[in-house]
Design goal:
This protein is of the alpha/beta class and 126 residues long. The chain has helices at residues 16-32, 75-85, 104-114; strands at 57-61, 66-68, 71-73, 92-98, 120-124. The chain has 3 helices and 5 strands. The N and C termini lie far apart (90 Å).
Length: 126
């Protein structure tokens, strides 16, 4: 006399716990994220740049080096060179050309270095 085991009872799948988990995850990510911009880098196009009485300075940014008005310089020596060429109290216009092989991180590094120069209007050429 063989006894057959009772067939397993299938319960219907309820979606209520899944919706609760999704709601808790949504709530967690909304509360843990910030909506502020950390390192905002202001950019102006060369067409809408600042005009002053003095001629603009030209900075050529390449992947390995950069040059200010045709003379090679480094990123650390750029700030003293810009402060030496600018006049006191007047806005200095700096036109930046970017080579094709330059990464966006290198451009952001340059722009964050240029924040330290007072009265400097930076324009990026296309």
């Amino acid at each position: 006399m063989a006894l057959d085991p009772a067939p397993p009872i299938r319960r219907p799948v309820t979606l209520t716990p899944l919706i609760d988990v999704i709601f808790l995850l949504l709530l967690f990510f909304m509360l843990s994220s910030t909506f502020t911009r950390f390192a905002e880098v202001p950019l102006t196009n060369a067409a809408g740049g600042v005009t002053t009485g003095q001629p603009p300075l030209f900075l050529q940014l390449r992947a390995e080096d950069l040059s200010l008005n045709g003379s090679a310089t480094t990123l650390d020596d750029l700030l003293p060179a810009l402060q030496a060429q600018g006049t006191e109290g007047a806005t200095t216009v700096l036109l930046v050309t970017v080579a094709d092989d330059v990464t966006s991180q290198r451009l952001v590094d340059l722009l964050t270095h240029l924040r330290g120069v007072p009265d400097l209007a930076v324009s990026i050429l296309d």
